Batch of 3 targets.
Target 1
Amino acid sequence: MPPIALTIFGAAMALLAAVASPAHATGPVSTDHVRAELVAGAEAVRPGETIRIGIHKQIIPHWHTYWLNPGDSGLATTAEWTLPNGAKASDIIWPAPERIAVGPLMNYGYEGEVTLLTDIAVPADAPVGGSFPIRATVDWLVCEEICIPEQVELGLELPVVAAGADAGPNTGSAHPAIADAEARLPVDSPWTARFEASDGTLRLAFDAAGLRRESIEDIWFYPNEWGVIAHAAPQQLSVEADRIVLAMIPGDAFQPTLASLDGVLVVKERAGGQLLTQALTVSAQAGTVAAGTGSLAGLSVGIGTALLFALLGGLILNLMPCVFPVLSMKALALVEQAGKQPAQVRLHGLAYTGGILLSFLALAGLLAALKAGGTAVGWGFQFQSPIFVLLLAYLLFAVGLSLSGVFTIGGSVAGVGANLAARGGYAGSFFTGVLAAIVATPCTAPFMGAAIGFAIAAPLPVLFAVFLALGLGLALPYVALSVWPSLLRLLPKPGLWMERFKQFLAFPMYGAAIWLVWVLSLQAGAEGVLTALGGMLLIGFAAWLYDVTRASDRAARHAGSGLAALALIAAIGWGIAAGNQAAPRTAPATAEAGAAETTPWESYSRQKFEALRAEGRPVFLNFTAAWCITCLVNERVALNRPDVATAFRTGDVTYLKGDWTNQDAEITAKLEEFGRSGVPLYVFYPAGRDSQPVVLPQLLTVDIVLGGIGAG
């Protein structure tokens, strides 16, 4: 399950001492947000029979807890039962949920009051005349704008009476909350259902004759499993003479091989001036479903959501560390342009935006070409190439040399006039946009995963549109300052500090180049590092030679430029040759806890993962890459922390790390299983062979990890 936008920051726990009295709960337990108690469907139990128990929750206004499938974010309520020997508790029996919109997300859950039901089988040898104690440890996530995991201990004791015995006039009477919850339980659907996914649309059809469109207030399908549909996307309804059709967008976890689509259909219909609500249990089989007459093309809805997510993701990329050096350069450029005419400032903004958009179009085109050739690719795929990593390290190193003043490139290089020199400023803005797009690709921002995953699976026009929206989001802050130049007056006035600041900006560039050499060491080993350092030596020599000879006479200038060009060609040629010969390095199989790795992990493989799942072991998956800055930050601030290591050890959680630094088909397949086109991806599988995966957000904190694994 995806986490995107909500932050878990704390946990509140309440404990109730169980003091029993027949036919009554030990009393309600209150947290800051929820009042909970156990209630029973009868005032006594009989040996060999079943009694229905409810976890009755009263939630404070504006807060909510979650259904079996929480939707875009959240966690379902869980209960761990402590019962007399021989007694067994069923899984939670869920009343029909409600839709709860939180910003752009759609969650499924409950507000106000809700009772979650469980059937408990009483053993046949339960002693008549004794008591039957029921205890439950209940965990839930309660959310408004923030989410807080809470845990309570609830208790209830009921007398044991003989089968058929008269245990008082109220024996067998249900608590009112039980009856209310049973009225909200889904019933078996009377309609045959089938589904089909094609052309980016998931159509769910029901053979339901006689329904009138004008009487239907709302119909909504809630899937049992997370990610089968895009929860926040509209469900377009078509009502025909003999059937109804819902057109939906497949979600991140939808699989084309899905044989059965299970969930709850909630129908709200007006009859006799009243609004009637009926929840139906649905188990639709794969089949052929013709498009409904009233449905929209699924992709048109999906494109809107994908474009919005791409725009937001691109905007958030501006806050990522990989883009910081380039943004610093643009901040300096903004100060320099503060005194220029507004029209000039706008042209610089357009040039910068053009560089970003053209780069993202080129990236989308390369993705499309590789995809057409049968290659599995995703966001940041180019960093899996040692040659690309090496050339980008060269580029950032050269930019650093320029900022340090080792060499400069201006209109005088080619001896052209002042007009072309001025245009060179716009070219500088354009290529700064290109550089911003390139250095942004190792980072992943919230919302980007779903948008890019949708785009890669969509037709070419959609792919290009989503990548353009992503680029526009990245350029948006600078575009805003360019369109409203009056904002530039808020920046400091130009002065000597600008030259010092420009020189300072060289060091983030050098740092980025060093990081890329480290990535190269993991891809190509010591030979790759030697190639990178040797190439940087040649680039440094070329930059120095070019700068010291450009003011000389014509012969010396041409000789210096020629030798500098040869040095550059040698550096690039050496790098490409070495990159083509580099053998992929494999990640270590395990990492023990130590100074660098607080949380021990094992290397991911499909065979190892499936073996752990077959044993019912809890598993935490971390798909990462050495070139993914977001991944490295998450590991540093969240995963490699003592609290997380302790929680993994206490919960017997096996931590598997999948290294996507180099291309890996198994990891790519797992990413595609969750609708992702790149890293990071964090997934927790609770204990149990059939447990459902919990997808964590792309930006982690310790509290988010602990909450995701149920240890918060």
Target 2
Amino acid sequence: MSQHGVAPRAVTRSVAFLTAGVLAVPALAGCGSEDPAGKPLAAPDVQPAARDKIADGGTLRWAVDSVPDTLNTFQSDADATTTRVAQAVLPSMFRMNASGRPERNPAYLESAKVVETEPKQVVLYKLNQQAVWSDGREIGAADFAAQWRALSGKDTAYWTARNAGYDRIQKIERGDSALEVRVTFSRPYADWRSLFSPLYPKDVMGTPDSFNDGARKKLKVTAGPFTVKKVDREDDEITLARNPRWWGEPAKLSEIVLRTVPRDKRAAELAAGTLDVAEIDPSAARRITVAARPRSSGSPLMGPGADRSTADALRSWAVANGTDEDAADEETVARKKLRKAAVKYARQQQALRGFEVRKSLEPAYTQLALNGAEGPLADERVRRAVARALDREELAEAVLKPLGLPAEPVGSHLALSGQVAYADNSGALGGQDTKEAMALLADAGWVRGGPVKEQEKKKKEEKAAGAEGEKAGASKEAKEEPAGDGTYIVGEDNKAHGRQDPADHLAQDGKQYKQPAQDGAPGAYAPKGTAAPANRGAAPLAKNGKALTLRFVLPSGPGSQTLRTVADRISRMLERVGIGTNISKVSDESYFKDHIASGQYDLALYSWPATAFPATDARPVYAKPVPAADGSLNVEQNYTRVGTDQVDQLFDQAVSTLDEGESRSLIRKADSRIWAAAGSIPLFQRPQLIAARKNLVNTGAFGFGTPVYEDMGFLKRGAKPAAGPSAKGSVAP
């Protein structure tokens, strides 16, 4: 799970909750002739080029978030960079194609198929006869067997993060030749293609010591187009070098250097010439887009001082040339600093003309999580009301439309559009419907304008007066705009924190006016000139003397502006049905550990990676929490604490059938029930924005697809890339 990026596949996933018999699940898609899986919403954008157009050699400098603590993807502290290294240097029997579906990797596998189902499932792997480890030894059954034993869960001396699938294997043996590996399962396993990707050598997997420590800081033996040349923790970079023993098409690049660069520093590093490719935020994408345009194109001003009006500039000149010497000196220094910053910015913009933005959608989606463990959201009706109050299309458009990306809400918890298990099952919960949301809240006992205890009221008023109480300080202009009508550009500071529907304001003269019992026009009984109070339909909800207010926890780091923009919109949508929110911004470091994982939140936004194997990977994310021996609740990765036995059973059935159509149907049925439980609400697929040198090819926004590292490189002088998706100049300024 990540609020910024996509977690490696070592992060598993799981199940959610629905009160049995309460909600009818609509007929599943897929019964007709049209495939409900559809197609990916966005294609990869990697500037494709044939290998004969690519120069031989060169070093690719690639920004990453961190140098990982381990190079072993099966350990709990593995991260996205661990996965990137493994993709470049280790075998994978299957890899993801552009639709997020697993496909055989011909560099390692000639074939792999189920050859027996009775009395046991048997999969026969036929390996590429040229496939060898970097020490010259053939890849074979001994490596498969060592990985199975390490990850089976039977030997607790191995510090593994997961064993899903490996715990179903009964034995592994050599086939009729050294190139054949027979894997026999003790129980049927639908997701057998998820195994042995990546595959580590027996030198790493053979003993607990070598597994736990041998692959954390280095990988001596590899079998990919690249090898791990150096892990430099002082300079925060990893160097991968071309593998001379690689039997496939030789890597075009001589080296790939993965450098740790904070996201807010990447535009400057690109301009300085120290990076060739980097994932960037929307503000950096706009800078590069504007830099690429002709200077006469009328592009909006950006950079230091761009937001200063003529009046600001005139006042600055007047102060600098005025009679107050101290103020004049101070203003003169400030003007010099501004000019210096503007010159530096202009130089950077010139340098950024050599880059372009490549964009797609990440294989991950952002969701609104609703903590169902306690408080108002423990009531399924309240969770469903929150969901029905949301306009998911508006949220998707706010994030993706300014970037020129398809702005469609995600319709599944378990797959994304284009993947075989995808179907839009959101109808099991229903779309945005204010009346239905209000009816659900009323049914749950939340009364409009109900009495609120004085202590609660006082606490609320004190909060409103503080830093978090932005609503009380809404500007007049903001009050005059309709709620939710603000224009948001992803990556910019939110200038409408305090925006509120004018109907939400009572008389502002400090007096309280009691609405008469009889029906009448709002404001008709207040003194002349007093602003009309809200109608009762917009009043806050209360129950048992407590207002319905939810704690909305968000990360506060510079890369989290998109989440804060979305949270603002969600808060306004909830306010329309009488649900209040208190936004709590916490440090990025504590966001997951101290709040999400520990359940210290009501509402939260974070992302889950997509998976080609939802029956395996999604189960721990939606599994029904169970009491542990010590009395605590074992939630696995189900941080919403919402789950049912029925959903668990559907996952168990899906992973145990070898009929792919039946498994798909069971996954879609499970997803419908997860929607109905309203423990989490998928919102939109995350944008993927990559800055790359214009002559860098076969690299960029990969979307679902696994990168082909041996084909990355720089164009030969005078060569042109093949026609393909491009994002040049497409990000709205």
Target 3
Amino acid sequence: MRTTDARVAMEVTGVERPPGGWVALVGGGPGRADLITVRGLRLLRIADVVLVDRLAPRELLADTRPGAEIIDAGKAPHGHNLTQDEINAVIVDRGLRGLGVVRLKGGDPFVFGRGGEEALACAAAGLPCEIVPGVTSAVAVPALVGIPVTHRGITQDVAIVSGHVDPSHPGSTVDWDALATGPGTVVVLMGVAALAGISRELVKRGRRPDTPTAVIHAGGTADEVVLTGPLSDIAELAAEAGIGSPAVIVVGDVVRLRDQIAGAPSARRAPDIPDRRG
């Protein structure tokens, strides 16, 4: 980018473009484009290259500058446009060419987002890499539908786990015994496919069968679906409703608060704030 272009970028975005190549791992938030951080949006607007994940808010790509290279990294549950090693290689390659690279992810880069692996690849290559935290879906998606993951008088602790490996699989490293008898709230990401096994294991290891449970599909988007029921029945209910990925699963008594919070006048969305660029 020429000096004049950098000055314009600074005036428009409030971000001074650093000399040479740089990388920013940007969390796009839980679904809605307007839930990205201010810093993340500013960096997105000056990037030369944007590698975007499947769950990142695609509407944000309209904010990229003309001529920016957009690379779809994909990463669906059972298929990838690019493998993680390929993503790392592209990030490093573009950065070493002297380009500004934004790796745009859904949620937060360091919460089951493999951001650590990408940051390590940059470090090994000697590339400057900024981590821009995002609003993780693990707490934001439940909040958007009226479920606080902690609540005074109900629970003071919450555990966030990955459910993409069935509890019965030898490769599962989650301590399901501890989850069944420990945290007041358990939030499971990437767990829809293994929901039957997860619910069965939690009950078998000590969690009450009637524990309130919510499955929130596509939270924060126009396709959002919320299903609630007892832990022992939730897998069957989700299958009957045809709920698939992406979804956030919440197990715990805090789910009971949804009817009161989501139905209250305070749950109505505030007016949209106009973009003040200009």
